[in-house]
Amino acid sequence: MDRGEGCRLVDVDGNRLLDFTGNHSSLVHGYGHPHVIEAVRRQLDRGTAFPGPTEPQIRLARMLSERIPSMELVRFTNSGTEAVMNAVRGARAFTGRRAIACVEGSYHGTLEETMAGAHPDAVVLPFDDTQAAVRLIERERGRLAAVLVEPVQGSAGMLPAEQGYLRALREVTQLHGIMLVFDEVVSLRVAFGGAQQHYGVRPDLTCLGKLIGGGFPLGAFGGRADLMELFDPSHGRPQVPHPGSLNANPISLAAGAATLELLTADAIGTLNRRGASVRDGILAEFTAAKLPAQVTGLGSLFGVHLTDKPVRTIRDSSRGDAARRHRLFLALYCAGILIDPRGVGTLSTVLNEADIDHFLDVLGKSVLGVAGS
Questions:
Q1: What is the mean pLDDT of each run of 10 residues along the chain (373 residues)?
Q2: Cα 310 from chain centre
Q3: Cβ atoms 18, 335 nearer than 8 A
Q4: Which pTM does this prediction carry?
Q5: Which residue range(s) make up the domain with 238?
Q6: Do residue 363 and residue 286 come from a single domain?
Q7: CA–CA separation, 190 vs 198, rounded Å?
Q8: What CATH number is given to the structural domain containing 315?
Q9: Is 183 annotated in the active site?
């Protein structure tokens, strides 16, 4: 890509694209939003990095704690991967256990335990079977430090969890002193207080990334004060050290605070209404073309799966027609629309109704072309 402005991108060949990726959901207000850019400029004039806490650090931490009550204390990292890594370190130190349970289909960055199901410290839970997940946790409870879960599985195809599933995970982990960790790197946008507000489930720890950096590298993790105090260096060497020359970088923090200022409850409500309309519109276009498809998602997130079977898990999604899906991605790109090659997308606040209508019109024509191929 060469440049971006608002909801539009220009690639190095000069192709103009109406963007429905938001850089993999990280740019909820589009590219180069004036409010975010101005906040970054002000911070650049003050400095780019400091050997101590800064006002932007305190400000964004307070904003996150106010939006997400379960995040009683907050620490900042350089990415969502680092946020998950440190949440796992904290959970292990707090519980004295090593093993980590993850849900099949979830993506938590590049931590070994969360990427390799065969890892000796990893337990893999099913996503669509509450009773089986609870039984596995019960069986492994003596060695489990944490259960990690994405309330909406982004990389698997924007697959939202069932409320009963998340509540069951909360109950069983609470019963056995296992830390429940919500990875809300993707799902923060679905409600003012994230997916945990939407579902009414309070985790012990929350990991954030993507949109909280406003287009700059930033992650955050936070939760129960008694656990987060293990990282506190103010009384000497902490039980869980968390050093880093660029942790809580003020440029990223300034961009993140500006982003959250704009991401009000009303803005999220508008995004979510448009997201529901987009999902309905996508399904209508596939139905009109008589091409089997399932459309998943929550809030302003959507996923398209080229299969005639219901899609609840990554296994369901993997049965879709991947070759045809890629042809659809290419057809949309050639017509000036960008979605993720995996068939997923997100809305930004700078997309308007006319942009969405244009997307659905182009999609309908592209689906007809792909259906006939």
A1: 97 97 97 98 97 96 98 98 97 98 94 79 94 98 98 97 98 98 98 98 98 97 98 93 94 98 98 98 97 98 97 96 96 98 97 98 95 75
A2: 23
A3: no
A4: 0.96
A5: 34-262
A6: yes
A7: 7
A8: 3.90.1150.10
A9: yes
